[in-house]
Amino acid sequence: MRTPRGIEWRKSTYSGGDADCLEATSGISGLVSIRDSKRPHSATLHFPTPTWRAFTEALGPAPTGGAERPPVHPART
Predict the structure, then answer these.
(1) What pLDDT, on a 0 to 100 scale, did the predictor assign at position 68?
(2) Residue 69 Cα to chain centre, angstroms
(3) Is there a contact between 44 and 24 (Cβ–Cβ < 8 Å)?
(4) Which of 42, 49, 51 is nearest to 74 (CA)?
């Protein structure tokens, strides 16, 4: 599946500002898409929204130290 052009990507704050970041979008109905921010034109992973939500909820609370967990639903910030 190719990600349509014009999708707004949100960079994860979980990396704490490191150059190795993930970007996420929920711009495709029913899916959350993830990509490497350093290689935005390479592979993109697509997950059904309920699957992504279950995954992020299973991670538990964010660790201390200022880093935040990626949002359960990237569009809801």
Answers:
(1) 57
(2) 10
(3) no
(4) 49
